[in-house]
Each structure stands twice: as structure tokens, then as C-alpha cells.
Amino acid sequence: MQMDQWECSISLPGKKGIFQTGLSSLSMADQYESVSLICPPVDHGPAAGHSWFPGPPPPIYSCTLTPELEAKAREELQEKPEWRLRDVQALRDMILKEHPNLRTRLDDAFLLRFLRARKFDYDRALQLLLNYHAGRKAWPEVFQDLKPSTVKHVLDLGFLTVLPRPDPNGRYVLFLRPGKWKPNDYPFVDNVRAIYLTLEKLIQPEETQVNGIVILADYTGVGMSQASNPGPFLAKKVVSILQDGFPIRIKAVNIVNEPRIFKGIFAIIKPFLKEKMAERYVLHGSDLRSLHRSIPPSFLPEEYGGTAGRLDLAAWTRLLLDCEEEFIVEFCQPDPLEGVVLPDSMLFEEGAGGKDEDTFRGLRSQLYYCY
Q: The CRAL-TRIO domain covers which part of the protein (predicted)?
């Protein structure tokens, strides 16, 4: 097979193949020589040295779930350890048969993310994988040259971070502060880029794939300029990526210190949310006791009535920046959908802007009224 410089070959003793990750993928290359595979880096460098966050998975899959998490995955995700690699192989076969030109990773660890996110439903997992790649094609401003160094200004500003300890349910807390962003400072899509890179890092550990994550958003300082800037079409893209185009389970969205204008902001977002996701939004206002019922104080920084020390923005920034090479391999490569024919029903339908703008004109008056 002719390989580009961004592709790689992994050879295992006594076996032949272009990308061999354990028992489930040893014979696929001989059957489908035209498939290009993106290989995750083997040497993860200093990123593996952040003791508070799990390191990336090894190139050859080996389950890292505890017996308790395996039981949880069985109950909530229909994951059976004895069938795990068989299920991965089934999804891999579907990709190679139905989309042989798709430039996607096919290793076990990567495909498991999509199976777990869709409770091991092969068809839904495949659709999620296609949406995952389609999102990149539909929104090049976000995904072109996507690496941590290009969003350092967002991280330094404190727009987002990840709290160092998972909550009692084992879920990492993605902490957002939309009020830290001012439209005149940089484009809104830079915030989306930083969020996406963070999600990509968060989803690597198998614990996150099973437990999901929690979002905590502090809306202190959010005014009309932030609320009206993205607009419904941009909001729809963000929601579509998080809800239908990324293999992560968002279990709760906690909003604190929301201003009156948040009613108008949520009116923009809600039409694009699935009912189950909309029900996971919890508005706490300035009532920290209400927040503590969702996230106990021992897991929160002092600024939010917690006992976990002062809020540390630098730790997550360092972790992401240490993963620069990892993200270059993952994102700074040729278009994975080049030459691929996708189904008619995909994310981000073209030509929807007119309807969205009409909707936005109606919602803008709501924003001003709330403001």
C-alpha cells in the first residue's frame, strides 16, 4: 500500500498487516489495501507525566476499566467484556465495507469510544463516527490547524479549564466561564476550538467513556455582546457537534450566576437540544447550596464554596500544551472525507442560514427584553 507521510505502519512479531491492534484487526489490511489509517503517536512525551489525569491509551488496546466500571458499562452501555473485541471488529468491518475511502483511525481504543457513546448499537455508532468527521468538513474555521498552541490565548484568559478531581460519580468537570470572553478580543470560534481540544483529551481515558462528564458554567459577566454574538446558526453547529458528532456522554450541565439575559440565551440553544439533554440543564443562580447538591464542596474550588483549594487554570493549560504533537498527528492532516460519499442526512445542512437568521431576529428581541 502506498502510504503518505502522515500514515504509519505497526508491525507485530509473526503477523502481517498495516495497522494491527490486538486480536481484532490482524487480517483487515490484506482485504482492504486502499484504506488510509491515522495512527496515534506511540511516544506521548511529557503529557503522560500529569499524575492527576490519566495518560493516553497504549497503541495496542488493553482494557483499563476496574471491575466496578466494567459492571457499570455492562448495565448502562450494554458492553460485554467477553464480546468487546468482537463488537469492535463488527464496527470496523462496517466502516471498511461501506466507507472504504474514509481516512479514519480503526484501532480498537478509538472505535470503542463510538460504540460506548451509542450503547454498542453498530448502526448508531457508525453514524456518530461519520458525524464526527463531517463536523470537521462542515466547519473548517474550527478544525483547520487545530492544536493547543493556537488556542493558548483562550486558555490563558480562563475561559475554560477542567477541575482536577472527578466528581463522586467519576465524571470530570469541564468548567466554562463565558463572561471571560469579549467579542472584540478574538473570534467566538476560538472558544469552540479550545472546547473541542479539551473534549478530545477528556475522552481518551476509558473511565470517561463510561462515566461521562459534567459541565459547570459560570455566567458571571455575560452581557448582550456575548449573548448575541454567536447567533442561532453558530449555536446549532456547536450543539450538533457536542450532541450528535462527538463520542462523549454529557451527564449534567450546571449553570451558576446566570443573568436575566440567560433566558434569551437558552431560547437560542434549546430548539437544537434533544429533550433528554435539555432536561440535564440545572440553573443554580447564586445559590451555592443548590450547586453543592449537584457537585459536593470537596470537589469544588474555594471560589464556589468548595474545599479543593483555589481555582487552578494553569494545570489544564500545561497538560494540553504538552500534547501539541499528539494533536498535530490527530488533526493537522489531509481531509479525512476526501473522496468519501456521505449519506444525504448528515450534520449541518447547507442553506439553513436564512431560516436561522429569521429565527434569530425574533430571539434578539427576547434578548433585549431580558437584558
A: 147-312
What pLDDT is attached to residue 342? Answer: 59
For the chain, residues classed under CATH 1.10.8.20 are 22-138
Residue 172, classed as helix, strand or coil, is: strand
At position 359, the amino acid (one-letter code) is T
Q: Which three cell numbers stand for residue 200?
A: 478530545
Residues of the chain with CATH 3.40.525.10: 143-324
Residue labelled with grid coordinates 448508531: 124
Q: Is residue 371 within 8 Å of residue 223, measured between CB atoms? A: yes
Laid out side by side, the sheet with 281-285 consists of: 160-162, 172-176, 213-218, 250-256, 281-285
Q: Which fold has domain 22-138?
A: Helicase, Ruva Protein; domain 3 (1.10.8)
- Please check whether residue 264 is in contact with residue 369, taking contact to mean a CB–CB distance below 8 angstroms: yes
Three-class DSSP category at 342: coil
H helices within the chain, ranges in order?
28-31, 67-77, 84-98, 108-117, 122-138, 140-143, 152-157, 188-202, 206-211, 224-228, 231-244, 262-269, 275-278, 288-294, 314-322, 324-331, 353-370
Summarize the confidence of residues 61-89 as an average pLDDT: 97
Residues 6 or more apart whose CB falls under 8 angstroms from that of 251 comprise: 169, 171, 211, 212, 213, 214, 280
Digit-coded pLDDT (tens) for 316-338 = 999 999 999 989 888 766 655 55
For 170, phi then psi, to 5°, come to: 80, 20
Contact residues for 242 (Cβ-Cβ < 8 A; gap 6+): 199, 248, 250
Residue 355: φ, ψ to 5°: -65, -40
**Cell numbers placing 264:** 434569551
Q: Are 105 and 77 in contact (CB under 8 A)?
A: no
Q: All 3 cell numbers of residue 308?
A: 479543593
Q: What is the pLDDT of residue 111?
A: 97
pTM: 0.80
Tens of pLDDT, residues 230-271: 666 677 888 888 889 999 999 999 999 998 888 877 887 888
